[in-house]
Amino acid sequence: MTGPEQLDAATDDDAAELVAQLKELAGADPADVRQVVAEVLTALDRAAGGALREHLPDTIRVDAGLDATAPARH
């Protein structure tokens, strides 16, 4: 049976793996990583109907080309 602790551990493992992959990319070219992250955040915001952008810090919204008050891009 899967309990909350096991789900939290799986989520933490997934997050740690993602961070490791981003760090590996960043070693090659940090600008490329920023671009990839911006594209991913834009896609996630689009999938969430524009709801993600209001939860992002201003600097990240700017990097991703998201405006908290603008409609989601399609």
General description of the model:
The protein has 74 residues and is mainly α. It contains 3 helices and no strands. The longest helix is centred in the first third of the chain and has 25 residues, at 4-28. The protein is flat, with a radius of gyration of 15 Å.
SSE layout and pairing:
Blueprint: H1 4-28, H2 30-47, H3 58-64
Global morphology = flat
Largest beta-sheet characterization: none
Q: What is the H/E string?
A: HHH
Secondary structure class reads: mainly alpha
Helical residues, percent: 55-70%
| Rg from Cα | 15 Å
Gap between N and C termini: 40 Å
The average pLDDT is: 77
The tally of domains stands at 1
Which band does the percent of strand residues land in? Answer: under 5%
Strands, total number: 0
Q: Which blocks of ≥5 consecutive residues have pLDDT under 50?
A: none
- Helix count equals 3
What does this entry show, briefly?
By secondary structure, the protein is an all-alpha fold. It has three helices and no strands.
What would the keywords be for this entry?
0% strand; flat; mainly alpha; 74 residues; 3 helices
